[in-house]
Amino acid sequence: MISYLQASDACIPLQHQPALLLSYAHSQDVSSASIMDGVTPVPTNRQEHETAHSPLMQAGASLSPGPVAGDKLSPTQYMHMLRNLIRALDSRDTSFLLGQQMLPGHYGDVSHALLQAGNLRQALQILARYQSKLCPLLQPRFREEGGIAVLYWTDSFGAPSLLPFLVEMHMAAVTGMCRWLSGERLPWRFCFNRGKAPHSEQHQVHLGSDLRFNCHLDGMLIASEWLDKPWPRGNSMAASLILQTLERDALETPMLASLPGTLYDYLLVNIRKAPTLDACAQAFGISPATMKRHLARHGSHFQAELDLVRTHVALYLFQTLGYDNDAVAQHLGFHDANNFRRSFKRWTGQTPSLMRGGLLAAESIIDLHFPKSGSQRFYLHPLFKRYPRHIMEHHSEYQIAFMQYLIVF
């Protein structure tokens, strides 16, 4: 049976991300009472947490009978706090400024492990592995393929109205952490699964100028050569020792992910088996009706979760492996390419042929500004071999090679 967390489960320690939020609100002259309005934490061992050094005490939020460091919140309550902060500040840069303080954070051993990360690869692996401790509202996934590393997020607890804010916050968190630990600004490309924001100048100030909107994924992309470059502050051996302790702890108290996040991973592994609601419910040890009800509490339903995974897998197969429509349709369990074509258009708003053709559109190549490097070698996507010669002749192999991911989503 697959275990999971729901949005109503009290699983976020108040002294972690919520305390950061309260501290930031305090710095902006917003009272803790207004942020905690409508939120009642689940109490734990209060007496051992009520100290003058508590971040909640410093934020003025732990005065009895108010919340203290040992209390826990549910994701729903934490999101309510975020909405209160957004309403109180009414500022376009709140997500970015809050995110810049989010990582490595003060979340115990896992934060110490991040501080000791020897390079970008280790940091991203820690972030993805310990998502429930470091970034409970969004689930990051890290993959590397064809000379490019991709970090992308999916919604953990069903917060569609908050999703743009959360994505900005998490991107700012990773960007800021990497800049601090590496000692330099890394050349990320940022992809957003929405139209261009009305305050995109804030994205440029806090993230960078390499932005892409109207994508099919919220993610950050970077050349793989940056993954293993040593960080001056890092100590990979010290990080590994801390991670060993965390893994031992996880054997005693397993780390649970959200229902949408756990279901995403299950569907991803079983996508070639054409998973059904009944099969998934059986794997999770619940009835189909209960699965439906739990997903509805997260603002979703089974078909939407299945379509999300199918979209991501289809894009991966088109981009990275150069599959044609028939091959992708067969991989995803469709009986024929026509059914897949209609479904893909419903998922993305484009037909597969338009999507694949747009990957290497000339106008998308113009704004690429990754520098050439004699040591930089990239994987040549199979689609490039079939692309019109006049485009291939007017752009360097480095620009062309990056196209598979810069237009991916």
Distance between the termini: 33 Å
What is the count of β-strands? 7
Radius of gyration: 22 Å
**Helix/strand structural class:** alpha+beta
| Tally of contiguous helical segments | 21
The SSE string, one letter per element, is EHHHEHHHHHEEHEHEEHHHHHHHHHHH
Provide the residue-averaged pLDDT. Answer: 84
Strand content: 5-15%
Instruction: Characterize the largest beta sheet: strand count, sense, and whether it forms a barrel.
Output: 5 strands, mixed
Fraction of residues in H or I helices: 40-55%
Specify the overall morphology.
Answer: globular
- Main β-sheet, spatial strand arrangement: 3-4-7-5-6
Low confidence ranges = 46-55, 57-66, 359-409
Topology record:
Layout: E1 12-13, H1 17-27, H2 32-35, H3 55-58, E2 72-73, H4 75-89, H5 94-99, H6 109-115, H7 120-129, H8 131-134, E3 138-145, E4 148-155, H9 163-182, E5 189-191, H10 200-206, E6 211-212, E7 218-223, H11 236-252, H12 259-270, H13 277-284, H14 288-297, H15 302-321, H16 325-331, H17 337-348, H18 352-358, H19 362-366, H20 389-393, H21 397-406
Parallel strand pairs: 5-6
Antiparallel strand pairs: 1-2, 3-4, 4-7, 5-7
